[in-house]
Amino acid sequence: MHKLPTAINLHKASKTLVLSYAPDEQYSLPAELLRVHSPSAEVQGHGKPILQHGKLNVGLSKVEPAGQYALKLSFDDGHDSGLFTWEYLYELCTRQEALWADYLDELRKAGKSRDPAESVVRLML
Length: 125
Prior knowledge:
- By secondary structure, the chain is an alpha+beta fold.
- The chain has a single domain, classed as 2-Layer Sandwich (NE0471 N-terminal domain-like), CATH 3.30.2020.
- The chain is 27% helix and 26% strand.
- The strands form two sheets. A three-stranded antiparallel β-sheet has the order 1-2-3. Strands 4-5-6 form a three-stranded antiparallel β-sheet.
- The longest helix is centred in the last third of the chain and has 15 residues, at 96-110.
- The radius of gyration is 15 Å and the shape is globular.
């Protein structure tokens, strides 16, 4: 049995999706986290995830149900092809801290930035 949220609230100003679960669990997922962990083929690749970068300012523009099993999230950078199942959303909620730390580490290793206006350049002296 998948854990279903009892309430879903999109907060466009703070760029977060707030999911509430019975009896008193509540999680706030930043749009950037959702965007860089989208279950779409564009992000997940074919077997090897594709590191997303420059998504610091991304927001959610729309949240729609996808049948009885998922949400379709539309982001303001045009990305809208990922279906977030209830199971996957709950995993993102409960593992948010570890997933974020791993993401920041991957960005650092790749010499990439969260800021779309910033490009990390390595000087080879």
